[in-house]
Each structure stands twice: as structure tokens, then as C-alpha cells.
Amino acid sequence: MLQGYGSTILDGAWLTLLLALTSMAVAIFLGLLGAAFRLSPIRWLALLGETYATVIRGIPDLVLILLIFYGGQDMVNRLAPMLGYDDYIDINPFVAGVFTMGFIFGAYLSETFRGAFMAIPKGQAEAGAAYGMSGMQVFFRILVPQMIRFAIPGFTNNWLVLTKATALISVVGLQDMMFKAKSAADATREPFTFYLAVAGLYLVLTSVSLLALRFLEKRYSVGTKAADL
């Protein structure tokens, strides 16, 4: 059916999954940082966090990918000679894809995490401070564990969108399953067959992810309904 291109597309699927997981790790870090900035009482930090979230969420993902990949590569090659490096630097598409997707979805997760933090009663942080915990200890030991329960639904949506959006990275040369499918379609002139196969693989990936995240949501919600009552 796939005329010998099945293993090639599966190799691309593995790269797609690796790209999605690594990008999400970067996005979680930036999302937590952005949420902390937006909730900060320090005005310039809050403004910086709001600017990051507003600007990134207001520009199409494909435009940002092209801007960051080509603009970043141009900037690196302009700065390199100033540091004594004269050879041309070609940025790896996977590395560029990870940081680009992480940077984009960090903005979306900052909104998810901000809302989750705001759902935690203020008395929780005040109790931690009363016990002599530092601000960082209160954040990571008290707020983050409770925030996860509120953030999982929004996180699930962002993960599904990020997973599908990885297909856009193929435009900068990353040989993911979308890139492999396009190459196979061009070679065989049967685009429907290969794009349908890729659609099926994305559906499997997102469906498994959805089941896993729903299980995680149930685990984090154990005992909370009774407590709320």
C-alpha cells in the first residue's frame, strides 16, 4: 500500500514525537516563567510577561517559525564574525524546531498556568510563608503541585495543538513524517495515500495522548470532589 515507504514514514513519526516532547518541555519551562512574571507584583516583570503572551499568541505559528528560523540564523551568522568565527553556521532544523515550538507554546501555557495559579486559594501561599518558607519554596512546594490539577485540561489542549503543529516544521527542512510523506507523494504521485497515512498516525498519537492525560487528570482529582463538598 505504501510502496516501501512505510518504514521511512515511521522513522519520521518517531522524530515528530521526539520534537513534540522536547518542544513541550521547553514550553512548560517558559510557560511557568511567563506565568510567574505575569503574576509578579513587580510592574516591569508583569509587563514583560503580558507582552510575551500577547505578541506570540497574536502572530500565526507559521510566520513565527519562518521568522525565528531564518531570522535567527541570519542573526547568528552576523554575530559570529564579531566573536572571531568566520565559517557559515547552519542551524539544525530539529534544534530550531524545538526552540521555536517551545517559544510559541510557552506563551499559550503561560495563560493556562496563570489561570491555574489564580484558582489556588491565596491562603495556601500565606500559610507557607507563615511556616517560614521562602518565595521559591512556596512556589514549587505548595503552588505548583496544586496548580497541576487546574492546569491539566488546558495543558491537554495545548499538547494536542502542539503535536499537530509540529507538521509546520517540515517547511524548514526537518525530515519528520510530514516531510517524508511529501517526499513519498512526490515520488509516487499518490499524495492521498501518504497524507492519509500521516493523518492516521497523528490521530493515533493524539488519541493515545488524550487517554494518558485524562488518566492523569483523574489521578490528580482523587479526593478533591469530596473535599470541595
UniProtKB/TrEMBL annotation:
Keyword Chaperone in record: no
Main location: membrane
Source domain of life: Bacteria
Domain ABC transmembrane type-1 residues, every copy: 13-214
Keywords from the UniProt entry: Amino-acid transport, Cell inner membrane, Cell membrane, Membrane, Transmembrane, Transmembrane helix, Transport
Family: Belongs to the binding-protein-dependent transport system permease family. HisMQ subfamily.
Entry protein name: ABC transporter permease
